[in-house]
Amino acid sequence: MPTSKAKAKPAPEPATAVLRQHAETQFAEELEAIAAVDTRHRPPNWKLSPWAVSTYLLGGTLDNGFVVSPKYIGSTRIIEVAIATLTTDRALLLYGVPGTAKSWVSEHLAAAITGDSTLLIQGTAGTSEEAIRYGWNYARLLAEGPSMAALVPSPLMNAMEAGKIARVEELTRIPADVQDTLITVLSEKTLPIAELGQEVQARKGFNLIATANNRDKGVNELSSALKRRFNTVILPVPSTSDEEVDIVQRRVESLGRALELPAEAPALEEIRRVVTIFRELRNGVSEDGKTKLKSPSGTLSTAEAISVVSSGLALAAHFGDGRLGAEDLAAGILGAVVKDPVQDTVVWKEYLEAVVKERDGWKDIYRACRELS
User: Fold this and answer.
1) Are 165 and 208 in contact (CB under 8 A)?
2) How many whole angstroms separate alpha carbon 161 and alpha carbon 198?
3) Quick check: 167 and 23 in contact, CB under 8 A?
4) Which of 123, 317, 331, 337 fits as disulfide partner to 173, beta carbons 3.0 to 4.6 Å?
5) pLDDT of 5
6) What pLDDT digit, counting tens, does each position of 219-234 carry?
């Protein structure tokens, strides 16, 4: 009888086929180059020294001429404080308004320190204690009873056992009683498994990075006991227009490459116009300081500016001539500004007539936005 041939396993997809690579994969070359010249002291289980982690996040040129791209554009001291915190026994809380790169910084810190940014717990209103502590394989639990084999470890437990960095996104979205599950872990560095009468003790190198913002609906304030376990670092919005334009330009170019958009790189002037609109409405005053403005209900963050420009690029690529223009940006700007259809519409129309209409060289974006409004 003919023997049946086993089906060959499909070859794994190349990393370039993944929609969004993890930081340690996307920037593997940079991490290797930094590690090769990094001769400074490394805390236990760290892949790089604190100095090297800072260089990876802030960018710079190494002694051998290798250029490291900046992942965070802003205050050097803020990043240094965040890194120094992770060398101690205190956890790190990255705090600020939405869109200030909290998750981005968290991911890159974990990637540089441990080479693994995937030990992530996404906080939501439905996050349970099991997602933070551990769960159970109920088939094995019913068949064999409680045992370590039937236990399903959480990312936090895996980080403790491996001596790595765990990440908790949107900590204040998690119900308060579930948040407090972290208190024992952060103070005692142990995770009790009451059903087995055992515990998991954290290895050297373990720590936790959490992110939180104070502008989201449904925010659950941290208890004072939990706050004491964190060192809080506030990430501000970019201090200057040039800084914000640089951030948007870098992220949009990176996203364009990842999504393989068949469009030209956006002109710096178009990015600057989006950033200027967002900053003026966010600050409640025009760039020249002459016109007081009402601010809309949304945050108009840097992340939203990146989204507006990226959406405009997609429109230009697939329904235009491949060159980003005012008509491609208008819908995205309107969607970002007008969150409340009554209040924000009034704010937006006043801004259009008082500022955009009167600004030299902005007639095209005024007309495009006016048509949609």
Assistant:
1) yes
2) 14
3) no
4) 123
5) 46
6) 788 999 999 999 999 9
| Rg of the chain on CA atoms, in Å | 24
d(CA 176, CA 166): 19
Q: In the chain, where are the structural domains located?
A: 75-234, 241-372
Q: What pLDDT, on the 0 to 100 scale, is given for residue 68? A: 96
- Assess contact for 169 and 122: CB atoms under 8 A: yes
State pLDDT tens for residues 7-64: 555 555 555 678 889 999 999 999 999 999 999 999 999 999 999 999 999 999 999 9
Quick one: which H or E segment has residue 198?
strand 198-201
> CB atoms < 10 A from the CB of 352, how many?
18
User: Which candidate, 96, 12, 20, places its Cα nearest to that of 258?
Assistant: 20
Structure token digits, residue 96: 């600020």
The phi and psi torsions of 216 (rounded to 5 degrees) equal -85, 145
According to the model, what pLDDT value does residue 9 have? 55
Total length of the chain: 373
Rounded CA separation 208/241 (Å):
32
Identify the residue whose tokens are 């007081």: 292
Determine the Cα–Cα distance for residues 208 and 164; give it in Å rounded to an integer: 9
What pLDDT, in 10s, does the model give residues 154-174? 999 999 999 999 999 999 999
The pTM (predicted TM-score) of the whole model is 0.88
At 54-78, the pLDDT tens digits run 999 999 999 999 999 999 999 999 9
Strands 151-153 and 134-136, sheet pairing? antiparallel
- CATH code of domain 75-234: 3.40.50.300
* Tokens of residue 150, six digits: 């039937």
Distance, CA of 154 to CA of 119 (rounded, Å): 9
Quickly tell me which residue has 């060192």 as its tokens: 231
